[in-house]
Amino acid sequence: MNVLWVFAHPEPRSLGGALRDDGLRTLRELGHDVRESDLYAMKWNPVVDAGDFGAEAGDERLVVGATSARAYAGGELSPDIVAEHEKLAWADAVVVQFPLWWYGMPAILKGWFDRVFVKGFGYGRTLRYGDGVLAGKRAMVVLSAGARKPALGPRGINGPLNDILFPLHHGTLFYAGMSVLPPVAIYGADRVSPKQFAESRDLLRTRLHTLDTAKPIPFRTQNGGDYDDDLVLHPAHAPGATGLAIHLG
User: Fold this and answer.
1) 15-29 helix and 194-209 helix, angle to the nearest 10 degrees
2) What's the average model confidence in pLDDT over 35-64?
């Protein structure tokens, strides 16, 4: 299997960096081919602007969705975006690794998605939520969080981790068509003992062993008949319920 590892941490000597190194080594030992996008090492530009779209941007008001679609179709995207598209097209699975900052991804990683998942490649009007160019590929998030596990649990002050990751899991990866696996989360990352590091390393190794077989999160597809023309869940599904969990089949 071809695996792309997208890494967003400014310190390669961090806990995240150590887990990334061991994870890449594990994948290679399992016989997988691996490529990496180490965003800080690449000095990735996270800011969308007209320079991303070449001649297609023109001098008129920039409409990012429409302009990016034309640039993608016309081969006018900037070379750094094209290079990431080539990696994603090659990959059967994508591992996205980052520290959880302010309930989300570091800005550099958010900017990677903003610039790389352009219209026509990452999504289309109907090619979204389970369909699209990236359908058939798998994705798994690996994250480190400073909070302890109970604080990211169902009654924890930070809110449930699955809810925090919903914008990335459902609104980005699944939106672009990918099958999203349950995340690998390392809690209390600022105070991990050698024993806890070994446990975290072993957890990641175990999950990488099943990267190609694990069951994905069962999100409902947009075009599978569960939603009406306004993309609202039909009353027959999860009747009377609201919240993020209703989008699980």
Assistant:
1) 40
2) 93
| pLDDT computed for residue 58 by the predictor | 81
| Residue 94 in tokens | 């994508």
Say if CB 69 and CB 119 are below 8 A apart.
yes
53's tokens: 């779209």
Cβ distance 142 to 109 under 8 Å? no
Q: Are strands 93-99 and 33-38 parallel, antiparallel or unpaired?
A: unpaired
All structural domains of the chain: 2-216 (3.40.50.360), 218-249 (no CATH)
- Can you point out the beta strands (E) in the chain? 2-7, 33-38, 93-99, 138-144, 179-180, 184-186
Other CB atoms closer than 10 Å to residue 128's CB: what's the count? 19
**pLDDT tens-digit map of 50-66:** 999 998 888 889 999 99
User: Rounded mean pLDDT of the chain?
Assistant: 94
